[in-house]
Amino acid sequence: MSSIIPGPVENSNAIRLELLSWPEVERYLTNCKGVVLPIGSTEQHGPTGAIGTDAMTAEAVALEVGRRTGVLVTPTQPFGMAEHHLGFPGTMSLKPSTLLEVLNDLFLSLISNGFERIFVVNGHGGNIATTKAAFAQVHSNARMRKISCASEVRFKLANWFMAPSVSLKAKELYGEREGQHATPSEIALTMHLEPDLILKQRPLNDPVPAGAINGSEDFRLRYPDGRMGSDPYLAKADHGAVLLDKAASYLCNDLSQFLEAL
Ligand code: NI
């Protein structure tokens, strides 16, 4: 069954699953089977970036998408696959196999109660492979458990930082200094969300260019301060506001198409 897109709400609290009661969720499901699930990571983001960057950014984009469309947003999954960042204190990682199981259970919970369109807003490149694997596993598990809507279930992975309009803006603002990890674009968004983070900003040495990612010890040797080719000192909080708007616009369109598709 296709879904009716509920339409914008004034306050994003209206679409936060954790603030609804179960009868409200049941009522929502009579019109719309779509839900947005943000996933991030809790990992080092260079010497000046917040550990929670990937979870904060994914959540902010997801809530803005929810506010503009009226589609429910679940609580954020704050832990992702960040094994290669474990050489830096503060990082908390799930192995790919653990993350696969966590996502499997969360997706199946939603599906077993009638959600059929799960739109994952992701803030961390290291989650991509495992999230896609979880989609395949859940299709298989839903069928084996004979969940009634199993054949209707669809997943979509939306990596906000890879949205074309976001990449273009990052290129325009930071050029090659965007880099690949602890990027000024993601740091700018965290500064927009939590202005206290602006106080951490300071000029840094030239970064090591981005290259291979292996184990955590190798990562720390290759990238001693945790950055991969990025210059987060270029980040400004007002860039973060622009990037949030661009990410939300792109993803809203993506979500609408996803909900309307068979
Ligand atoms: Ni990140």
Helix/strand layout:
Blueprint (H helix, E strand, L loop, with lengths): L21 H10 L2 E6 L13 H17 L2 E2 L22 H17 L4 E6 L5 H17 L9 E6 L4 H11 L9 H10 L22 H7 L14 H24 L2
Parallel strand pairs: 1-2, 1-3, 3-4
Helix pairs in contact: 2-6, 2-8, 3-4, 5-8, 6-8
The structure holds nickel (II) ion.
Nickel (II) ion binds next to helix 2.
Report on the structure:
The protein is an alpha/beta fold. The protein has one domain: Rossmann fold (3-Layer(aba) Sandwich). The protein is 43% helix and 8% strand. A four-stranded parallel sheet has the order 2-1-3-4, sandwiched between helices. Helix 2 crosses helix 6 and helix 2 (53-69) packs across helix 8 (237-260). The radius of gyration is 19 Å and the shape is globular. The mean pLDDT is 97. The site of nickel (II) ion has 5 residues, from helix 2. Residues 45, 53-54, 124, 186 line the site of nickel (II) ion.
Tag the structure with descriptive keywords.
Rossmann fold, four-stranded parallel beta sheet, binds nickel (II) ion, 262 residues, alpha/beta, globular, 4 strands
CATH superfamily: Creatininase
- Uncertain segments are none
The CATH architecture can be named as 3-Layer(aba) Sandwich
Helix share, percent: 40-55%
H/E topology pattern? HEHEHEHEHHHH
Assembly type of the shown chains? single chain
Strand order of the largest sheet: 2-1-3-4
CATH topology: Rossmann fold
**Could you tell me how far the N terminus lies from the C terminus, measured between alpha carbons in angstroms?**
8 Å
Please tell me the overall pLDDT: 97
Question: Which ligands, by name, code or SMILES, are bound?
Answer: nickel (II) ion
